[in-house]
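Can anyone check this?
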Amino acid sequence: MTQFNNSYYLMRHGQSEANVAGLIVSAPFIGTTAYGLTEEGERQVQASLAHFEGPRPTRVISSDFLRARQTAVLAARYFELPSPELDVGLRERFFGGWEGQADSGYGQVWQQDEADTDGSLDKAAEDAGSQGQGAVEPVSCVLQRGLDTLRALDTRHAGEVLLLVSHGDLVQILQTAFVGLAARAHRRVPHHQTAEIRSLVSRGQSWPMIS
């Protein structure tokens, strides 16, 4: 597989109740059932869809977290498409022990990501996570999860325009592979705003080379 069979757009969910409360909500057992969109989040989504200038999506694929699902439903209705397909590969990055804590913790995690030039912290987090210690999901794992999701979708579909509805860290980290940045440098990618739709890759473009 050297070239993409489809075009992909990334959409971050609209403002959520977790955003307003200033909380980190990344655990699936919480995020899939609670902390959906606010009214402002719904307005953000509708405005973003109305201003979308890309080709009309042919299907919507979404994280199964409530805030993403609700965003995806609005998108599918707007484009008059069937109900969104859910894919756990598009879930939020898991923030381990930061779960339920103030979202100021994001900045500390991102600083650690950026400082991990040799991957040692990433590897330690991966090992701790495998031992059930609740570590933050490593950027390398988030990137691999995103790329694996793309590969699976690109195997199942061809000649389509897919709108992928996901979360801040997943979309930031996934974009690094397409702009020549290391995954740990994901905050150097222009900030992906809530409800923003951004082109990731077009049909016929080459798959990124990941070291």
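Reply from J.R.: I decoded it. The chain is about 40% helix and 10% strand.
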